[in-house]
Design goal:
Helix content: 40-55%
Shape: elongated
Low-confidence stretches: 200-205, 214-223
Distance between the termini: 52 Å
Strand order of the largest sheet: 1-2-3-4
Largest sheet: 4 strands, mixed
Number of strands: 4
Length: 223
């Protein structure tokens, strides 16, 4: 029990330090939300039920508000740490629940533009990272190659990045959740096995390491 508590506190301290590097004013922000949450709940109770009841309710409310804001900042900081690194999209998808099968670097250029292949309930999703022009060509080639092996499977493609028409890394999970659910468990396994024969440049670029969050307009084309 004590080990678990120590591990939790250690993880919390690391996340706090990581987040504060990105948002130096984090202590003031969290303190502000704590005070705001405590006042919103405690002030009415003070006038109607007295200060003891107000204090008992205000402290948990303040902690909840401060924790909520810290979690939001921590998630944003985690994305910022890997944003722009080759394989960042694969790292984000790999951290999601839902049985996503991720193969990073199925196609790579010398400029480190790359395609990550994701297999899930929607079908096959090809996620490009890098220069929009070069990635568009990579996606087209990979889409044709995949379609030859899986002519009946829905194939989607999208670009992740900060340039016009690309999906910001933080919005990738939301874009994936918008895709229709076309495959079942056994069909996903069959698609994965068939695509394993494609090979590619998988493993040429590693998935970025570091803390990952646990919870726009897109360029996406279904076949």
């Amino acid at each position: 029990m004590f080990r678990r508590i120590g591990s939790t506190l250690s993880s919390l301290a690391k996340n706090w330090a990581m987040t504060q590097k990105v948002f130096p004013a984090l202590p003031l922000e969290v303190a502000g939300f704590f005070i705001l949450g405590a006042l919103v709940v405690g002030a009415p109770l003070y006038f109607f039920l007295g200060w003891i009841t107000a204090l008992i309710a205000a402290i948990p409310a303040g902690l909840l508000a401060g924790t909520f804001w810290f979690s939001r900042r921590a998630m944003k900081a985690a994305y910022k740490q890997i944003e722009g690194q080759p394989g960042a999209a694969g790292a984000v998808v790999g951290s999601l629940r839902g049985g996503w099968n991720v193969t990073p670097g199925v196609a790579v250029t010398k400029q480190q533009d790359l395609i990550t292949r994701v297999i899930g309930k929607p079908g096959v999703i090809l996620i490009g990272e890098g220069s929009p022009t070069r990635v568009e060509a990579l996606l087209a080639t990979e889409r044709k190659k995949t379609a030859r092996w899986l002519p009946e499977t829905p194939i989607y493609d999208m670009q992740v990045g900060t340039e016009a028409g690309q999906i910001p890394l933080m919005k990738l999970q939301r874009e994936l959740s918008k895709l229709p659910r076309n495959l079942r468990g056994g069909e996903i396994t069959e698609v994965r096995k068939r695509l394993d024969a494609l090979g590619g440049a998988a493993g040429a670029l590693p998935i970025p390491k570091g803390p990952m969050p646990t919870s726009a307009r897109s360029v996406r084309r279904p076949r």
